[in-house]
Amino acid sequence: MKISRRNLIKLSATAGLTAFTATSISPLLGVVNVAQANPRKKTKITPFNFAVIGDAHLYEMPNHRFDKTLERAVNDVLKMKPKPDFVVFIGDLANFGKKEELLKGKRILDKLRKAGIPYKMIPGEHDWYLDLGKFWKKLFGSPYWSFDHKGVHFIGMNSILVEDYWTARDMTPWERMLAIAELECHICGLWGVGEKQLQWLKEDVKNLSPDTPIVIFTHSPLWNYYPRWNFQTKDADAIRDILSKFEKVIAIHGHVHQVVYNRTGNMVHIGNLATSWPWPYPPVELPYPKIVMHRADPGDIYDGVGFATTYIDDTFLGNMKYVEWADLIPKDLKNGIPL
Amino acid sequence: MRIKRYLLTGVLAAGILTTLIIKDSKSKPPFEEEELKLMNEELINLVKKGDELWHSPKLGTNGLTCANCHPDAANSNPHTFPKYQSNIGKVATLREMINWCIQIPLKGKTLPEDSEEMKALEAYSIYMHRGFKLKPGDNEKAYPPVRVESGPGYP
Ligand SMILES: [Fe+2]
Ligand SMILES: [Fe+2]
User: Is the distance from CB of A336 to CB of A325 less than 8 angstroms?
Assistant: First the structure.
């Protein structure tokens, strides 16, 4: 479909989006999707946007390169016009789950809150396995939650729970953390959300009608991508089953540090960039080989990394736009990926 | 060249000390099974050492390891060397590029190119891309490593 600038303005107006101004990180082009939507469909959504930041992997040492890239993401979000309604941090704020790392991360993210942009957190494995989430929960509260916003039901879950690999091996908390801090940890096993959260999810969506727009955040993908690197969630099938009654579900995940996209049944899945480092594509066939990022220049700390802004229109068509700081996103994806 | 004659002392998994004696042999087949096994063990020991270094922050000063960005040695593309590296500004070998990544992303000190450590890093990178076709000069693609189902990725 061809969209002329003129057309675009008209579409924006129809969607009541005239307030959106085009800045380099504005999700304006999300309106491209409006044209594909069924105009007769009644919905309760007031269009809005939010940002997703994640995989900051902060180290304890001061002035670390990963401080700079997380700070850059936060500063970019502060400059977004219009202001995003909220930010979701999608896990791996710390690298080794240390108090100093988590506190540093909170200090940086709190700039958002001070500017009137609330943020929600879910944990990644790097936040969790030093003290099994104790300090993270103290700072950020429950690792799973839901809320309603402008007609959309948002869900966040803790998807990085593994079975105990440390007790039998007599590992210290630090050894436990170091083991799972390796992507290719071969003693850690597959992770998931576990029975308790599955029950919670069932309850959470029980009374929602099938036409409720759902957005779900997990650290790891809700499909089987590459289990070797825990690019998976063990109970993803069960989650997808619970959510199968809905017309459409948008699933956003971190952990993979790369552009990746998939569709399963009623769900679209998309991976967020890290602010720390990019991860190579694993040795499996990609479901959507066109939706990938370019190789990164290892000499540029701002290449291969970034974050995303997501625009939700009144018919629950989403558009996720990766915010890059170097030439990372292929031309035809620069205006965002329809969700 | 003749294979050196070793009197090797190895520790079996069970913890029993055994002594393996390799007979005099020429550096050409046929090798005895015992010899082949031993030669392969020597290689895997080097790969294992490389694996440990690949995952060690000791190579650098900013806490990072090679595995931060190259899990299972992914995208180290050993089979594409030698090739022109824009970061270095000349045709570089795998060892030169390993040293470049030690210096820049890890903010560490380069290793002597003929050091045991360098050999080990190289061995790990290559072993995780075993079976790949040589493509010297390939600057187009990044290559995932061999597909690993479980374990460290080598026997
Ligand atoms: Fe991560
Ligand atoms: Fe992660």
Answer: no
Q: How far is the CA of A54 from the centre of ligand 1 (A)?
A: 8
Closest residue on chain A to B75 (Cα) = A280
Could you tell me the maximum CA-CA distance found in chain A, to the nearest angstrom?
A: 66
Structure token digits, residue A190: 């597959």
Q: Are B82 and B136 in contact (CB under 8 A)?
A: yes
How far, in Å, from the CA of A126 to the mean position of ligand 2?
A: 6
Q: How far is B113 from chain A (nearest CA, A)?
A: 21
Instruction: Indicate which CATH number applies to the domain containing A16.
Output: 3.60.21.10
Tell me which residues of chain B have a C-beta less than 8 Å from any C-beta of chain A. Answer: 55, 62-63, 67-72, 74-75, 87, 101, 104-105, 142, 144-153
List, for residues A283-323, the tens digit of each pLDDT value.
999 999 999 999 999 999 999 999 999 999 999 999 999 99
Q: What is the ipTM of this complex?
A: 0.86
In the numeric block, which tokens belong to residue A325? Answer: 């700081």
Cis amide linkage into residue B82, ω under 30° from 0: yes
* φ, ψ at B33 (rounded to 5°): -55, -45
Which residue of B55, B63, B148 is in closest CB contact with A61?
B63
What domains lie within chain B, and their CATH numbers?
Answer: 43-139 (1.10.760.10)
Quote the pLDDT of residue B28: 86
Tell me which of A184, A273, A293, A302 to substitute to probe the interface with B (most B C-beta atoms closer than 10 Å).
A184
Sheet holding A152-156, edge to edge: A145-149, A152-156, A214-218, A249-253, A267-271, A261-264
Are A125 and A180 a contacting pair, CB within 8 Å?
yes
Q: Choose among A196, A299, A308: nearest CA to A252.
A: A308
User: What pLDDT digit, counting tens, does each position of A16-48 carry?
Assistant: 333 333 333 334 333 333 334 444 455 689 999
Assess contact for A270 and A218: CB atoms under 8 A: no
DSSP-assigned beta bridge partners for residue A152: A149
pLDDT surpassing 50 at residue B3: no
φ/ψ of B132, rounded to 5, equals: -75, 145
Tell me the residue range of the domain where A75 lies.
5-338
> For chain A, what is the domain count?
1
Tell how strand A152-156 and strand A214-218 pair up: parallel
Residues of A with CB under 8 A from a CB of B: 59-61, 64-65, 95, 182-184, 186, 228-229, 277-284, 295, 297-299
CB-hemisphere CA count at 13 Å for A173? 12
Nearest CB to A182 within list B62, B67, B146: B67
Give the Cα-Cα-Cα angle A27, A32, A38 (nearest 5 degrees): 125
